Amino acid sequence: MKSLLPLALLVLLIGASSTVTAQENEELNVQTKYQTELDELLEEAKVKQAFKTIHKQDQQTLKEHIYLNEIPAPPFAEEERAKAFLDMMKEIGVDSAWIDEVGNAIALRKGTKGKKTVVLDAHLDTVFPEGTDVKVKVQGDTLYAPGIGDDTRGLAMVLAVLRAMNDVDLQTEADILFIGTVGEEGLGDLRGVKHLFSDKGPKIDSWISIDGGNLGRVNYKGLGSHRFGVSFRGPGGHSWGAFGLANPHHALGAGINYFVKSASEYVSTGPRTSYNVGRIGGGTSVNSIPFVSWMEVDIRSIDPSRLTDMDKILKDAMEKALSEQNQLRKGGRPISLKVEMIGDRPSGELSPDLPLIQRAAAATRSFGVTPRPTRGSTNANIPIAKGIPAVTIGRGGEGGRAHSLLEWWANKDGYKGTQYALLLLVAESGLAKS
Do 64 and 172 fall into the same domain? Predict the structure, then answer.
């Protein structure tokens, strides 16, 4: 029997895209007062010292980047990487550190006033299943490995920001939580950040995620998604001896056909919406009528109401296929259908005039880069949907082939991405005057 791992890996990679392919190309306008604020912050002695420290420690950041990447963190199995990340934050120095109930690695650095809590986040998990070779190959300034960009580089940046702040004794007014979150990818369904914003999580006033893209990404628009597990079940039997039984595979094939036709027509107009059948499985052998046939479906839209409409299109298509296949059967009991939501990421959009968004844009311009508003499916979706100031920023450097075995990240002035993250974090947290 052939191994199912290559197929499972392939469909997992195809179905795990986390950002809108076509980025929004307009420039994000920056109000003068925020640009002035960031320019003045850049002249502060502590900030200048922290910038120099980040540049000086670039090779250490790369070593930590490689070290963390080579600790596997497949979906729902991030424990080992979380512990390593937590230990590294403790070694750098924080006021307290812990692993929460769902596995997030959290470190608190107290501010001088503590009236506000700001988060700097990167996610621990990757899309790759257990057993994937995550050994890093280095060629010049380029690192090759699954997960090397998404999001291990973000984790290394979080550590570098914390270290630089400690090394130069840069204090903020607000408390800061440095977090490595679980469950950002795929069927993790943002479980880490959902927990943080539940009644069991800490009070969070502002959220900054590092995840995807080059310097210049200012993501404050959440791309919502619904994900479904669909299964048809029947008695199964021999392909010759039991011929005439309702066949779950036949029902699934018909259901996909009906869904794609209706969904294609629906998404041809209106706010952008997408759909994807990402995984399919079931059956025991070529000469057996399967007893189960299943698939996983990803539906995304910038408009929550269209997700609801697409949900109905999917369910109607599956019900039609179920009825049709049961009518075709020559004997045996009918097959059954189950449509279960397995992922729910909310849509949302913040005002570009919010101080955090303006600071992110102004900080980008301070590096000579045009700030680009983007929409994506990231940890920031949860606070965005709740109206809490949140932004996802890029990792800096250059990278590509995310969610593939050929993923790469090149250290092309990568330290500037870390400097940018520090600048935004300090601006949002308030620089404490010495």
Answer: yes
The total number of structural domains that make up the chain: 2
Q: What is the CATH number of the domain that holds 115?
A: 3.40.630.10
22 versus 60: which is more confidently predicted?
Answer: 60
Q: Is residue 358 included in any domain, yes or no?
A: yes
Residue 171: beta bridge partners? none
User: Got the DSSP string for 33-100?
Assistant: HHHHHHHHHHTSHHHHHHHHHHHHTHHHHHHHHHHHHTS---TT--HHHHHHHHHHHHHH--SEEEE-
- Measured between alpha carbons, how far is residue 100 from residues 39, 79, 81, 107 in Å? 37, 11, 14, 11
pTM: 0.91
Range of the domain at 408: 5-223+347-429
Which of 395, 396, 392, 390 shows the shortest CA–CA distance to 428?
Answer: 390
Segments of 356-396 assigned E as strands: 372-376, 390-393
148 and 293 assigned to the same domain: no
d(CA 118, CA 161): 14
* Of 282, 313, 345, the domain-final residue: 345
* pLDDT tens-digit readout, 59-80: 999 999 999 999 999 999 999 9
Is residue 391 within 8 Å of 186, Cβ to Cβ? no
Question: Exposed (0-12), middle (13-18) or buried (19+): which is 403, by Cβ within 10 Å?
Answer: buried
The answer on 278 and 144 residing in a single domain is no
Tell me how far apart the alpha carbons of residues 31 and 355 are, in angstroms, rounded to a whole number.
10
Give the residue from 320, 345, 370 where a domain finishes. 345
Please indicate, yes or no, whether residues 126 and 165 belong to a single structural domain of this protein.
yes
Q: What is the arithmetic mean of pLDDT over 5-11?
A: 38
3 state DSSP class of 248 = helix
How many residues comprise the chain? 434
Confidence of residue 189 (pLDDT cuts 50, 70, 90): very high
Across-strand partners of 282? 293
Quick one: 39 and 96 in the same domain?
yes
Residues 396, 317, single domain; the answer is no
pLDDT the model gives residue 212: 83
Same domain, 51 and 177: yes
Q: Are 204 and 196 in contact (CB under 8 A)?
A: yes
Q: Do residues 326 and 204 share a domain?
A: no
CA separation, residue 223 to residues 219, 290, 379, 385 (Å): 10, 36, 11, 10
Rounded Cα distance between 287 and 429, Å, is 64
Q: Which of 151, 307, 152 is nearest to 223 (CA)?
A: 307
H/E stretch holding 356: helix 355-366
